[in-house]
Structure formats: structure tokens, C-alpha cells
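Changelog-linked ticket: glutamic acid example.
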Amino acid sequence: MDLQNLLDDIVGAVQPLARQGAAADYIPSLASVDTSQFGISVATREGEVFSAGDADVAFSIQSISKVYALALVLARDGNSIWKRVFREPSGNPFNSLVQLEHEDGIPRNPFINAGALVVADRLLTVTGGSTTAVRELLREESGNFSIDSDPEVAASEARNSHRNTSLAHFLASYGNLENSVDDVLDAYIKQCALAMSCTDLALASRFLATNGLRADGTPLLSPPQTKRINAVMLTCGTYDAAGEFAYRVGLPGKSGVGGGIIAVVPNNCSICVWSPALGRSGNSVAGVAALDEFTTRTGWSIF
Ligand code: GLU
């Protein structure tokens, strides 16, 4: 398999789709990104990286950060998080308040905002209040120690976080937060505002393709824990379009409103695609098309 040729081909095929859809604008600073950009990177389980297009341009990882927060909580605290958050697809918008009330303050899964707030809360507790645990993991796994939160994106989200603030207060009212609403929102917004490139993210996600082994060969997660994160990504990782994503791509994946998507071929490689324009489901139009092309042409799908 000549991966480099394949990625170059994919850039040619999907670049025309890059302007289909629109950049997210409910976080105002995300709306100003040039939507013609598209990048793709693949990191093999051995650590080799293949990239094409705008693979080295940093973008806002947003909800993709929820995967690493969950991994850290499972790694440091085991399964107890599952008493506070379910692991079923929500069938509702990722920031729904209604569902949280119906379900007595237990979020449907760790990748909708309510669930990610519970995970961020637990991570704050197990790290003794650190808001940089996700950043440190991503720096170490990618080898890029300049990765940081974009302060402008974080400030922009903080000024417009009425829904997440409401969700956090709802969770607190059900006794499902251990830290203050302000501290949890601050940690959550900082992790979402991390700026990374496709190359950074493909490398940083490699532990999901290596049964939980970190870049230095030590275990972050056990193989069963890794399997379970990949399973939750498959069923809940791409908003209310996880069925369509499984149908087209056939891999565990996690998308973010910044237009990035990570995907995992277990025991083989981790992939990151990015293009800022989102379709109606909130997933990057060119990004999903590129992953569809990648798995169709390589045959590397879990199905
Ligand atoms: N920070 C964003 C929010 O909470 C993340 C959304 C996303 O990428 O799905 O709305």
C-alpha cells in the first residue's frame, strides 16, 4: 500500500468539497477560519506518519478533546465514571438540555456536552485540579510540546457558553458534579480550545490503534479499555450521524465543530482529517468524504 500516493489522491478528490457546508459560528472565533483548507494525516502503529494537504495547519480540536479526557479518566480512575455517565447514542443534539432532565442528570454518553462536562469534572478531581492534563497527554503523544489552548477561541467560547453553563448547573443540581460549575467549565473550554494539526492529532491518537500503548511503549490503557473507548467512538463519536459515519467510513471516529475528525483502524493506524466546513450533522463534509475514500480504497474498516 503506497499510503503517500493514496493521501495525495484523496486531497485531489475531496478538495472541491471543502467549501460545502459552513464553519461553526456559535463560537464566533471559529467562523473566521478559511473553509477552503483540507488536511489528512495517518500515523501507523509503528509511528510512521504520512500527510497531505493542509496537514500541518493548527485548528481548534473542540470535541475531539473529549476522547483524551475520557482516556485519562479511565486510565487514572478505572470504571467508576460509568456510574455518572451512560454510553448509549443520544439521538439528540450534542448540547441538549431536555434529555438531561428526562434522564435525571445522567448524560447519555461521554461525548455529548453534558457527558464531557462530567468527565472534565472527574479529571479535575483525579488530577488535583489540573486544567492541563489533556494538553500534557497530547504534547507527549504527539511529540509537539508547543501545543496549547488558543486563548482567543477559549475566550470566545466562554463569552458564549450559556448552554454549557446551563448543562453544568443542571448536572450540579442532580449532584453529578464534584467541582464548582466555574472550574468545570474552565477546564472543559480550555481542553476544547487546544489548537493542533492533523499530524499532531494522528500521532496523539495512536494509543487507540495500539491496544492502549503510549508513544514511549508504556501502557496508558489496557487492551479492553482501549476497545471500549473505540466502541463508544463508533456509536457516539460523530453527533447524531454516527450511523451514517459507520455506514460510510466503518471506523471508530470522533469529530469536532472545528472541522477535525480522528478515526482509528485498530491494530493498524490512527487518522486525522480536517476541513472547517460542516454539514448539517455537524461533521466536516470533506473530512467524512476523505475517510470514506480512505477506507473504501484500503479496505481498512472494522466491518
Ligand atoms: N466546545 C464546543 C461546545 O461545547 C465543542 C463542541 C463540539 O466540538 O462538538 O459547544
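Closing comment: Example verified and attached. Residues 62-63, 94-95, 113, 157, 164, 192, 256-257 surround glutamic acid (CB under 6 Å). The chain has a mean pLDDT of 97.
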